[in-house]
Specification:
Blueprint lengths: L17 H13 L1
């Protein structure tokens, strides 16, 4: 995918905490 980015959310497992995921989603959708 053009423009794809791989991110690792430190300290998170497959069941990601909302507090860790929300900032990433906000940044993604702001683009």
């Amino acid at each position: 995918m053009p423009g794809a980015v791989h991110r690792v959310l430190e300290g998170q497992t497959h069941d990601v905490a909302v507090e860790a995921l929300a900032p990433e989603l906000l940044e993604f959708f702001a683009k």
